[in-house]
Amino acid sequence: MSEIPILRIGDCLLVSIQVDMHDRLAMTLQDDLTQRIVADRAHGVMIDISALEIVDSFIGRMLNNIASMSRVLDAVTVVVGMRPAVAITLVELGLTLTGVRTALNVDKGLAMIRGIIDNPQNGYARRDARADREQ
Amino acid sequence: MVTPGETPVPIESSETMPLRNSDDVVRVRQAVRARAVGATFSLVDQTKIVTAASEIARNTVDYGGGGELRIEVLRDGQRRGVRLTFTDQGPGIPDLTLALKDGYTTGGGLGLGLSGAKRLSNEFDIVSAPGHGTKITLARWK
User: Fold this and answer.
1) Min CA distance, A54 vs chain B (Å)?
2) With an 8 Å Cβ cutoff, are A54 and B23 in contact?
3) Which of A111, B15, B23, B77 has the fewest CB atoms within 10 Å, i.e. is most exposed?
């Protein structure tokens, strides 16, 4: 079974999903990442999905779970590199990925994570404002 | 859906694949992608039918106890389409209306599989009865 490598850059973890994810692999990644956040004292997690040709509800749920777990562990998750066709399909599927931050590419994702870590007030304020709107 | 009395749509090609585990789900995604490319679907249309296939294939494995998929490439004059038929001999779906509701799940998922796959398809049909398995047919046209 192929594993998905988790790279560390400073206090961020970077995961680039380069394989067609089967369900067990998605669950393994979720567990591995959660452990690494604690072990590496990471404050940011970036998941690059630019190689993913589809995101179905299972992978969507995995992304949601990772974002929720890392939030509880005081880390910020940003998903980067979603393909346009995947984004169009996700919306029609009905998956909104509430609670998952997204950025266009790795550069912007890192900048977003830095911004939130260095200025948590900003990040939390933004999240609260969004939660209020949705209520 | 072909109802009795209607002229059946000409089928260009047809293949059947087993659906037993999550590796088969990945293979199904790749096969459906290849057929959609062959039918000259746009990238967005390919992504939509592959995503729909992934949702239903997972249901067949997780809830239906495994089954099979028939992939057909259709040609209706200038129109080309891909039709997928998922069959299992599992416990069946007791309440189809409820099963098709957004957010309804018996398995701890997001409850978007059936309803989402339906939205991603141009044609969608479920035949199921408790104890008699489930047959889901979906099609997408170019």
Assistant:
1) 6
2) no
3) B77
Q: Nearest C-alpha of chain A: how many angstroms from B133?
A: 23
- Complete DSSP assignment for B92-126: --S-HHHHTSTT--SSSS-S-HHHHHHHT-SEEEE
Q: Chain A residue with minimal CA distance to B61?
A: A23
Q: Cα–Cα distance between A25 and B70 in angstroms, integer?
A: 26
Percent of chain B surpassing pLDDT 70: 94
CA dihedral over B35, B38, B39, B40, signed as positive or negative? positive
Q: What is the ipTM of this complex?
A: 0.87
Q: How confident is the model at residue A126 (pLDDT cuts 50, 70, 90)?
A: very low
Taking CA–CA distances from A25, the nearest residue in chain B reads B22
Q: Give the residue from chain B lying closest to A64, CA to CA.
A: B110
Hunting for tokens 């090609």 — which residue is that? B13
Predicted TM-score of the model (pTM) = 0.88
Superfamily of domain covering A6-134: STAS domain (3.30.750.24)
CATH number at residue B125: 3.30.565.10
